[in-house]
Amino acid sequence: AQTVTQSQPEMSVQEAETVTLSCTYDTSESDYYLFWYKQPPSRQMILVIRQEAYKQQNATENRFSVNFQKAAKSFSLKISDSQLGDAAMYFCAYRSGGSNYKLTFGKGTLLTVNP
Amino acid sequence: SAVISQKPSRDICQRGTSLTIQCQVDSQVTMMFWYRQQPGQSLTLIATANQGSEATYESGFVIDKFPISRPNLTFSTLTVSNMSPEDSSIYLCSLATGTTRDTQYFGPGTRLTVL
What we know:
The structure holds 2 protein chains of 2 kinds. By secondary structure, chain A is mainly β. Helices cover 0% and strands 53% of the residues of chain A.
């Protein structure tokens, strides 16, 4: 079974600075997807960024980018120019390719942004 | 992207009772799912809600405890039956959409407290 590990239960960053959240996963599959979701306090789970395993190029969405290292099974999220609104719980998630849609989540990293 | 709503947004229930949670989408989607997020924990897939047929449950979840309906492509319900305090969680529906249907988007969640 696939597992997703987020080794940083909590992280903090100063406003306008950059922070990197770590995620590693374990799988024997070659076709899969990886995601970062953001869950602000008492608010909705929001998709931040996604990465297809077959793509070598790292995904980027505005201030959010990933460092996808397939051989190392690592999928870190970099947040640049951090804003107060970035404060949230961040979850890394894995989905197999094909018809199995199940998302397997890590335990999450709580990000605090200090003004 | 599709707009997802859930009712109720929160509820406090007595032990032994049942609660039905509704998930409504503003457009037709093929794949809908139900997740549970226990306090301070990550998300766990309960089941895939199949339109016109019985839901597909993950290991550890059974139909008698979590009956699911999916009468059409825009609506699904999850019932939490014979509740105990251990059922206190956030319950979220999600959908997979788009041409590749590889990405899931989440509803706002229902926060359930069982006394």
